[in-house]
């Protein structure tokens, strides 16, 4: 049984590795050179840079990713993060902490004006999040079309019937509604904190974010957040290694341009190099139609580590992503990579109070100034900065933000270069709020990237998947069935939604569907 997987992002790699482990002949077709998509990495001048995601969830014993990948025996070495993040608001900083007691203490400290009300709100949110986590562990794949998509849900609801009532009660709520119910709708600091967290995790702010998935996204840090020594790209590499060890194949720089029905059933994937016939296909590209893309000469070779100019000195695409349905949500990303001497980070930022002395966080979410937010193109979302381990006496600081992908296509080269310079300045200015040494360092070596850069280097300009509104997440979630026989969907644009964890779960659901509907003989 030959299975084709289109796309080597987290969803595609998860589906491919799980299927190969069960004995399927799996071929992955990937447009980019490096695996992992926006959870992967790229190499530049001999240095390794994360493509996007940096914090992993679900790797605690019995966690969602731990359970999903247990059959694969990946041998990961996750490092728990006690202090994963600081969220820098307009007038204060909130330290996101892993310990439940420490987090409640931090809520009182960070929101002194309404501390007890905020604590009641968060406890209610955490109770809802626990129900969503238990539901997710039961492995239902929504929307339901087959009995096997229920997973272990019937058993769970028999054992814990109160979950059905709780999930049903809050199924159509937004986070904004819970704020109003708790009398906090007018408390700006908390709403600003929630908006920054949710714009990153759910692609929408508190007023629009569906409460059920948003509650888990907000409180999942209490279950554990993790970093890998090699970044999230290490997970992508481990999945690729397992795929290859189990007889699968990953064909880099070979994008599936279109799918055609094969005589006798199955599909033919057409690439620049030829055709591949498969008995079934998992489409994990994020392109949900059969015309999956057009030839792009810029993606036909791996990015050169010796190329002149900065990261992102690539030929500009003439148009946006071909054939991407207009109703698929998501953003592009802009970023700045800075390599600085380790001394630049000594004593960075305001020191935490003694009882919360965790030192530097792993990452920051920063509320940008109105002028910089307008320049970036996202008036509500955060600037996201991550501090990576020291290497050769330097530390890598990556600074990124969401931005409309369409705003970076179709530009004249001079206009594109000018916008990148302004973007670099804005991102650096925001990063200096948490790394003050940046203000007095002149122009440190840095490389900027835009949605056009992502299109070339990782194969897609849009990141983040479908916004998690009530409509998209609850009423009309996009499921794994394409409407075509033997063609399944996975990735951030289908259930359970955006993010590395959700993408991997969607790959697992697609793999399960293939195993149930296309069993090995």
UniProtKB/TrEMBL annotation:
Residues 295-304, 312-323 have a biased composition (Low complexity). One of its GO terms (biological process) is carotenoid metabolic process. InterPro entries: CrtISO-like, FAD/NAD-bd_sf. Transmembrane segments: none annotated. Residues 293-323 are annotated as: Disordered. Gene3D superfamilies: FAD/NAD(P)-binding domain. It holds the Pfam family NAD_binding_8. This is FAD-dependent oxidoreductase.
């Amino acid at each position: 049984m030959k299975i084709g997987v289109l796309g080597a992002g987290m969803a595609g790699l998860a589906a491919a590795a799980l299927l190969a482990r069960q004995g399927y002949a799996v071929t992955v077709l990937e447009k980019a050179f490096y695996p992992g998509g926006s959870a992967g990495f790229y190499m530049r001048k001999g240095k390794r840079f994360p493509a996007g995601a940096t914090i992993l969830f679900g790797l605690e014993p019995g966690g969602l990713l731990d359970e999903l990948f247990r059959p694969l025996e990946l041998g990961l070495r996750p490092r728990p993060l006690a202090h994963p993040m600081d969220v820098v608001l307009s007038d204060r900083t909130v330290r996101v902490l892993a310990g439940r007691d420490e987090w409640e203490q931090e809520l009182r400290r960070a929101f002194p004006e309404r501390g007890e009300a905020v604590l009641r709100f968060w406890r209610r949110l955490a109770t809802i999040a626990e129900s969503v986590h238990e539901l997710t562990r039961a492995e239902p794949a929504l929307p339901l079309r087959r009995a096997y998509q229920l997973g272990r849900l019937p058993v769970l609801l028999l054992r814990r019937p109160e979950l059905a009532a709780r999930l049903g009660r809050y199924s159509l709520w937004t986070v904004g509604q819970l704020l109003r119910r708790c009398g906090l709708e007018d408390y700006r600091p908390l709403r600003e904190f929630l908006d920054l967290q949710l714009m990153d995790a759910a692609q929408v702010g508190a007023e629009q974010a569906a409460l059920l998935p948003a509650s888990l996204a907000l409180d999942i840090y209490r279950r554990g957040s993790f970093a890998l020594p090699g970044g999230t790209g290490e997970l992508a590499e481990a999945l690729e290694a397992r795929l290859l060890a189990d007889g699968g194949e990953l064909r880099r720089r070979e994008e599936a341009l279109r799918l055609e029905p094969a005589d006798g059933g199955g599909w033919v994937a057409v690439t620049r190099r030829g055709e591949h016939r498969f008995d079934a296909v998992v489409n994990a590209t994020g392109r949900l139609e059969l015309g999956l893309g057009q030839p792009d000469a810029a993606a036909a070779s791996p990015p050169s580590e010796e190329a002149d100019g900065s990261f992102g000195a690539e030929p500009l695409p003439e148009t946006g992503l071909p054939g991407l349905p207009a109703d698929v949500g998501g953003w592009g990303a802009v970023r700045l990579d800075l390599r600085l001497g380790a001394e630049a980070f000594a004593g960075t930022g305001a020191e935490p109070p003694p009882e919360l002395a965790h030192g530097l966080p792993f990452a920051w979410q920063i509320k940008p100034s109105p002028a910089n937010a307008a320049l970036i193109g996202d008036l509500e979302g955060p600037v996201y900065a991550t501090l990576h381990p020291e290497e050769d006496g330097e530390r890598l600081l990556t600074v990124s933000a969401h931005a409309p992908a369409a705003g970076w296509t179709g530009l004249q080269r001079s206009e594109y270069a000018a916008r990148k310079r302004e973007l670099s300045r804005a991102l650096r200015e925001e990063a200096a709020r948490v790394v003050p040494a940046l203000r007095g360092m002149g122009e440190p070596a840095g490389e900027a990237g835009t949605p056009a850069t992502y299109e070339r280097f990782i194969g897609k300009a849009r990141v983040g998947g479908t916004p998690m509104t009530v409509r998209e997440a609850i009423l009309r979630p996009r499921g794994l069935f394409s409407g075509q026989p033997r063609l399944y969907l996975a990735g951030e644009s289908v259930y359970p939604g955006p993010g590395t964890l959700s993408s991997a779960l969607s790959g697992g659901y697609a793999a399960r569907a293939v195993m149930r509907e296309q069993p090995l003989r």
